[in-house]
Amino acid sequence: MSIPEYFGCMVFNEACMKSRLPKEIYTAMKKTIRDGKSLDLNVANVVANAMKDWAVEHGATHYTHWFQPMTGITAEKHDSFISPFGDNGVIMEFSGKELVKGEPDASSFPSGGIRATFEARGYTAWDPTSYAFIKDDTLCIPTAFCSYGGEALDKKTPLLRSMEAINRQAMRVLRLFGNDDVTSVKTTVGAEQEYFLIDQDVYNRRKDLIYTGRTLFGARPPKGQELDDHYFGTIKPRVAAFMKELDRELWKLGVLSKTEHNEVAPSQHELAPVFTTTNIASDHNQLTMEVMKKVAARHHMVCLLHEKPFAGVNGSGKHNNWSISTNTGVNLLEPGETPYENAQFLLFLCAVIKGVDEYADLLRISVASAGNDHRLGAQEAPPAVVSMFLGDELSEILDAIEADTSYDAKEKSLMRVGVHVLPKFPKDTTDRNRTSPFAFTGNKFEFRMLGSADTIACANMMINTAVAEELRQFADYLESADDFHTALNQLIRKTIKEHKRIIFNGNGYDESWIEEATQVRGLPNLVSTPDALPHYTDEKNVTLFLRHKVLSEVEVCSRCEILLENYSKILHIEALTMIDMVNKDLLPAMSKYVSKLCKTISAKSAALPGVDSAYESNTARRLSELTNESFALVRQLETYASHAATIEDALQTAMYYKDTVLPCMEQLRKMIDEAESLTAKEYWPYPSYGDMLFSIK
Ligand code: ADP
Ligand code: MG
User: CATH number, domain at 30?
Assistant: First the structure.
């Protein structure tokens, strides 16, 4: 079958609905999708039945409401279609009620105190804007997950709400510019996904990878990424076979996987999809991560999605390309051809500038996780300080507008918004700066702080809501203005003046930038997850979410709590894994090797009197020291880990893990890594960094 023939063959998409639904049902369904209206039960019954027939024809036996609880991964509970029929028979059934609403027993999903455990039920509700699909012989229905009180318990619900918010406010602004043909606005996202692939056998021998997704120990290999010979290098046959199958599987699911290439680190790769509507992009990114893991297993490999699987080697991120488009196909972040279009572009650009400046803390929070803390600011990913890259041309234009001076010095023409055509800036000059957290790349912004394992739902919920708020303020101001053009000019100039501190086109990896950002510009530098998260509940942020009906105060608090708890849990598991590895494998191995060396020393002195054993004795001595120090540190770590469990407050617990447990883990790692470099390979119980990073031939 050709690609266009099988693309989306496992998706109950538009074409499928059109061919399988009676006309009036199809029309009702389209209306539901377009207007976000709820589905009439009669319509739902017909749709459910058609979906079931289609799914059964494609080998499905079960259905599931597929949702994204706050654990960040996707959840599913499978029910079969079978229903008793006659005396001994069954028929395959699926009702509209089952399609539209599900009631998983959800007491084990984190709710941050929203849903008391005795009220275990949450319910899932179909999001008809994201098509149903078949995965592993199961019909998956993308759903939102809420408590009985209606509070969101998932990542999808607030994302959908934020899309409504930005649609509402952007429409007000577009009306002011006379865009009467536009009826809705959607944000679009293309999420580039980085990942590592390592051999399954090597993986199976590393407890740390199995339990925590990252290596907790490991001396640096002689060869890392210094030679830059991996980036865009030729793809090894096993990886190529993996990528080919991955693309096929994703295409069947309607995921627009487009580009695959090697990344900077050895064994690191990237997949970029074609962009699509944000909530679909978010569903697709979850699917992509899941399919990557499954396909890797079929090739006897493991796909590592952790942000920092290997210390000292570049970690993995996820670039979130974001823009806003109208239903008439206009990208609102694309500089236009006429002065009028340009004024509109500049206003939307200003909304993003102001939004990122005022809600930089929320953007930082949206990417906060224990894993991502290892990456941000480590000279491989943007720093924890949020800033925006616009490129020199666009920055000069904004400077000229702000100063109300001529942009083109030669022509001495005044750069007036809505009067002059923006000079065309060549696209390729806009994407050079890879160090910026939030970069304008010609017709979209690329948010680069996300970790590879993050869902993109939270980051996009923050961006959408922040920009919606700025558009609201702009619309309020402009709607009440006497003279639209004068008001527009003033508004743009004022916004640039007040928020240009967020614009930074220099090297974000530079130490001096952090100093300038924090000391001179007053930008927040929320270095770690526990530093960032408490700001979730800052008054300005709660007000923002409430105003746009994206999150209630209870929802904000519960999310903050869950993220803090999650951080502590991850560090706890890491600490326990380290303790286990050191006690059971590493100290015994080190001791065994020392004993072997000591035996050699005795044997030598007996057999070869007068010959000294410099290598054996120095190594044995240093290894014995390291053994003792590691032993002391691991006892310390045990004490810390059990103390952490006794702290009640979530923030205090997270802080304790960051300030006390983590440094102890790092210290222990240092000892062990030095020991690894001194111990004969056959004595070391785990595959080395070299074995892991170069495991795929
Ligand atoms: P590169 O970053 O390699 O130069 P592109 O700029 O073409 O490549 O695209 C990078 C990513 O941005 C892709 O995933 C692409 O689909 C996405 N993208 C392009 N245009 C938009 C848009 N208007 N909205 C959201 N994402 C977009
Ligand atoms: Mg890119």
Answer: 3.10.20.70
Mark whether 290 and 371 lie in a shared domain.
yes
Ligand 2 centre and the CA of 272: distance in Å?
8
C-alpha of residue 188 to centroid of ligand 1, in Å:
10
Range of the domain at 340: 162-217+227-551
Beta strands in 335-468 (DSSP E): 388-389, 406-408, 413-414, 438-440, 445-447
Which residue, 261, 258, 253, 259, is CA-closest to 235? 261
Last residue of a domain, one of 498, 517, 551: 551
Give the total number of structural domains in the chain: 3
pTM: 0.94
313 vs 683, higher pLDDT: 683
Between helix 457-479 and helix 539-547 the angle, nearest 10°, is: 80
Does ligand 1 come within 6 angstroms of the Cβ of 276?
no
Q: Ligand 1: which residue has its CA nearest to atom 8?
A: 272
Q: Are 264 and 228 in contact (CB under 8 A)?
A: yes
Instruction: Give the residue among 569, 472, 187 at the shortest CA–CA distance from 480.
Output: 472
Element (H, E) at 195: strand 185-199
4-24 confidence digits (pLDDT tens): 989 999 999 999 999 999 999
29 and 98 housed in the same domain? yes
Q: How many angstroms separate the CA atoms of 79 and 85, rounded? A: 17
Q: Is the pLDDT of residue 252 over 50?
A: yes
| Residue whose tokens read 């959908």 | 160
DSSP string, 572-608: HHHHHHHHHHIIIIIHHHHHHHHHHHHHHHHHHHHHS
Which of 66-70, 108-112, 221-225, 423-427 has the lowest average pLDDT?
423-427
- Is the Cβ atom of 585 under 6 angstroms away from ligand 1? no
Q: Is the pLDDT of residue 42 over 80?
A: yes
Pair (62, 38) in one structural domain: yes
Give me the CATH number covering residue 607: 1.20.120.1560
Has residue 501 been placed in a domain? yes
Computed over every residue of the chain, the mean pLDDT equals 90
Residue 380 lies in a domain: yes
User: Are residue 384 and residue 461 in the same domain, yes or no?
Assistant: yes
Tell me if 556 is assigned to some domain: no
In the predicted model, is pLDDT for residue 684 greater than 60? yes
400 and 278 housed in the same domain = yes
- Our answer on whether the CB atom of 269 is closer than 6 Å to any ligand 1 atom is no
**Shared domain check, 182 and 331:** yes
pLDDT confidence of residue 318: 96
164 exposure class (CB count in 10 Å sphere: 0-12, 13-18, 19+):
middle
Same domain, 150 and 172: no
**Is 321 near ligand 1, meaning CB less than 6 Å away?**
yes
pLDDT for residue 629: 98
Determine the straight-line distance between the first and last CA of the chain, rounded to whole angstroms. 30
Examine the fold and report which residue of 551, 577, 592 is the final residue of a domain before the chain moves on.
551
For residue 114, report the phi and psi dihedrals to the nearest 5 degrees. -65, -45
Integer angstrom CA distances of residue 387 from 403, 510, 516, 524: 22, 13, 12, 10
Does residue 193 lie in a domain region?
A: yes
360 and 326: one domain? Answer: yes
Q: Using the mean position of ligand 1's atoms as its centre, give its distance from the Cα of residue 437 in Å.
A: 16
